[in-house]
Design a protein that fits this description.
With about 650 residues, this protein is mostly helical. Helices cover about 60% and strands about 5% of the residues. It is flat and about 115 Å long.
């Protein structure tokens, strides 16, 4: 480069005197038309040495820090812009050498990694340089820019919105390789543990924030799928396996109910949502542009051990039936009719069954007939009919006599009734009324916790912090009631565990069954009520038989959170409902046991402390004791 004049050298000497002069000097130099001539001298003078990267300064208040900005980086940015404009290889190498030196200093001294301003600027500089100046080894510097105690979102922005798109716009396959490496590093999974009072919860997070994951999905996945389809698909598939590994045992649908965008999907599962959508969109594009190449990958993942990958494959087959319909046919004998595949396979059948050959239609019906019985169900035959009916509803009246006959045959069983309201989902959330705040767990999450045996432990551990803006016990109780109505059989099988649940959740369990009883008809029942009473009655007795239940202190939190006092009148109402002479009355064999219960309820329930003679009858009926007496009267009449 051109040698500096005496006056130009004096500027650098002037900058060496103190930090204020240095800052002023860089501010002036970056705007000069001859700024480039100073670069080598500034480097030789040590202005870009890693030791000059300012460290965090502790604030006056404990835990607060000020992060100083390194003024030399504004000048470095100006050099990167100039190198790009001139396509100058020598200048680009000088700039990149500084980026490497400052970044690599992190490996030797972690203190140098704690300035997010510095690493935002280094990321920005790399994004500005011509791509030929950036090596694949330089891409490995990216994780260093995400380190430190403070915000990494600024560096993420430069990588995702500038560097990655630039590499993908290039015609160089070498740049595409660099872009793929950027994707790999930005989507590395880290499991973050959140500790609660009695349990821990692990959530997957990526190296970059959710916002920039969305940026990759909307702006870069398409290019990656075109330029490196197999590598991109393999990477995203590996990430999906890792992200969903803790849900495979009880159902990936609990984290992501539908592969496509659907209102049942949970906005708060950002990481899971990104990887499902990214692989889905990449495969859709690959399948459309090069179906023959995509086929082998789709066959591979539909036979994977990973449920979430199989679900994505089923969705792709359904969306590209003309090219991939034979993949479905070849998997009919591989137990494809699984609970975990429900939504995607149901939609495949609903959308394509009428176009099946006669042979494939018959094979599909046979596969539904041959679904294995559940070994965990207390009534396997009845449970199987429910499952078969839901599957058959996807192909009913679509041109197959055998399918329609089997559907009608199952519907004739009055204990089964109609298919589920939303047969393509294992659980369907209608949302929880927010009048009592948010709920820490949604319906499908509660049902998933049953599978892991952690439900009572998790809800007992929930601590209500802020009833105004935070999740509340009352909303969790409401959500629990909905979960009971959604899958009552699952709750019956663990009902004894609720003997250790806190009182609000015991109330929620009972009220969920009571609401189910109120709305269910003889032709549309989710459970056998005779079998349910065989579980509920001993549960009621175990609750109210002990003196400790009746003697415990009742604390009203002012938020209408159920207490012990709410439970006796609810049991009384439930028993009264079960003794009425209609088609829903419970079997007379239970009358001796329930008489014992109503006797306890009458003896121990409290009566009104003050009687208002103007409406004594109404008041008596609506007290806890009054409702117990009413249950006893109905019981006596039923026994006549």
């Amino acid at each position: 480069m051109k040698k500096l004049s005496v006056n130009q050298k004096s500027i650098i000497e002037f900058m060496k005197k103190d930090k204020d002069l240095e800052n002023h000097g860089f501010e002036r130099l970056k705007n000069r038309s001859d700024k480039e001539v100073f670069f080598s001298a500034l480097i030789d003078a040590g202005f870009f040495s890693p030791e000059n990267n300012p460290l965090p300064v502790e604030g006056k208040e404990d835990g607060f820090y000020h992060i100083p900005f390194w003024p030399a980086l504004n000048y470095l940015e100006a050099m990167a812009v100039l190198a790009s404009e001139k396509n100058d290889e020598i200048l680009s190498k000088q700039v990149m050498t500084i980026v490497r030196n400052v970044s690599n200093a992190c490996k030797k001294n972690s203190d140098y990694c704690d300035n997010f301003h510095t690493f935002r600027m280094l990321a920005k500089v790399v994004g500005l340089l011509p791509s030929f100046a950036i090596t694949k080894q330089d891409i490995d510097l990216i994780p260093l820019w995400f380190k430190g105690r403070f915000d990494n979102r600024l560096a993420s922005r430069e990588i995702v919105t500038e560097l990655l798109p630039k590499l993908l716009k290039s015609n160089s396959t070498d740049d595409w390789e660099k872009a793929f490496k950027v994707l790999d590093l930005c989507t590395k999974i880290d499991w973050v543990t959140k500790k609660h009072s009695e349990w821990e919860d692990k959530k997957p997070h990526t190296a970059i924030s959710d916002h920039y994951l969305d940026q990759i999905l909307s702006k870069s996945i398409e290019s990656l799928a075109i330029k490196a389809p197999l590598k991109t698909a393999n990477l995203l598939a590996d990430r999906l396996i890792e992200v969903f590994k803790d849900t495979e045992s009880y159902g990936t649908w609990s984290r992501r109910p539908a592969v496509e965008e659907h209102k049942q999907n949970h906005a708060y599962n950002k990481t899971e949502n990104f990887f499902v959508a990214a692989l889905r969109d990449a495969l859709l594009l690959w399948a459309k542009s090069k179906p023959d190449e995509a086929r082998s990958f789709i066959v591979k993942i539909i036979n994977s051990d990973s449920e979430i990958l199989r679900r994505v494959a089923i969705y792709i087959v359904s969306s590209n039936w003309k090219n991939f319909g034979d993949i479905y046919a070849s998997n009919l004998d591989k137990n494809i009719f699984q609970k975990g595949h429900l939504h995607e396979l149901y939609q495949l059948l609903a959308d394509n069954f009428s176009n099946f050959s006669d042979t494939l239609q018959i094979k599909t019906v046979e596969a539904i007939k041959n679904i294995p019985k559940s070994l965990k169900s207390s009534d396997p035959d009845r449970h199987l009919k429910y499952i078969q009916l839901d599957w058959l509803s996807s192909i009913y009246e679509k041109g197959c006599v055998e399918a329609d006959q089997l559907y009608n045959q199952i519907c004739m069983d009055e204990t089964i009734g109609a298919p589920s309201e939303h047969p393509d989902f294992n659980t369907y959330s209608f949302g929880v009324t927010r009048g009592f705040g948010a709920t820490p767990y949604e319906v499908d999450e509660l049902l998933s916790l049953i599978k892991t045996g952690q439900l009572v432990q998790k809800i007992n551990a929930f601590e209500q912090k802020d009833t105004w803006t935070g999740p509340t016990i009352r909303s969790l109780v409401d959500c629990l009631e909905k979960a009971v109505q959604e899958d009552p059989q699952a709750f019956l099988e663990i009902i004894d565990q609720f003997l250790t649940a806190k009182r609000p959740y015991q109330y929620g369990l009972i009220n969920g069954f009571k609401k189910l009883w109120d709305v269910s008809s003889q032709k549309n029942q989710k459970i056998s009520w005779n079998m349910a009473w065989a579980k509920l009655i001993p549960f009621f007795e175990a609750l109210i038989i002990n003196d400790s239940f009746w003697e415990e202190e009742i604390v009203d939190d002012g938020n209408l959170t159920p207490t012990q006092a709410w439970i006796p009148p609810l049991i009384s109402d439930f028993l009264q409902a079960g003794t009425r002479r209609d088609e829903k009355s419970y079997d007379p064999q239970y009358l001796p046991e329930t008489w014992r219960l109503v006797t306890i309820l009458v003896e121990r329930s409290e009566q009104a402390s003050e009687v208002k003679t103007s409406d004594a009858m109404s008041q008596a009926i609506n007290t806890s004791k009054g409702r117990a007496i009413e249950a006893m009267i109905n019981h006596a009449l039923r026994n006549c």
